[in-house]
Amino acid sequence: MRWDELFADLEGQFNAAGREGLEHEVTERARVELVSLGLIDRIRGTAGASIRCWTCNGELYQGVVSHVGDDWFLLTSGTRSVLIPVASVQRMSGLSATSVRRPSPVGRPLASVLRMLARDRALVAVHLAHGTGSLAPLLEGVFDRVGSDYVELALRADGDLGGGTTGGSCVLPFAALDTVTSRSESWQ
After folding, report:
1. Per-residue pLDDT band at 107 (split at 50, 70, 90)
2. Is residue 84 in some structural domain?
3. Residues 43-60 as b or e (16 or more Cβ within 10 Å = b)
4. Does the structure show a pLDDT above 50 at 159?
5. CATH no. for residue 122?
6. Please, which pLDDT band fits residue 69 given cuts at 50, 70 and 90?
7. Which residue has the higher pLDDT, 56 or 187?
């Protein structure tokens, strides 16, 4: 009888140690997974939901997360669409606790969506990242060229789209972009 109790006790200890080891492994894997996720994955997990986002220039944007790229996302509210580079996010609320990794290895970086706007000659309003609230510089025009880390904006002058001489142009590094607003449907 004593041997039965001893073996039962050993078996119980073995099972408990196995469960404890499994729980530790699951916890460790979850921690490693969480460390590898970025803010854009959290935003991707919130696609289709309404959020609030404050950007570096202090502006608050509210809308539905309608598109998410590698380093940008699009908030839509009515007919207004605002492209927000992740680098210009100051804080957010309303994000889902769910994170979703990029569905394919072929990404959609900020440059690709800006090239679509340039191709369509869409009129855009660009808020620059430096400045706060109403002091944040605002430029309007059409993107002429898009490089790997900059965009050239043909500035709007007197209601016309400048082509280099009418309103002039300026080159903006991606890091200077706080938001890009357009009514264009070419975001997809």
Report:
1. confident
2. yes
3. bbbbbeeebebebbbebe
4. no
5. 2.30.30.600
6. very high
7. 56
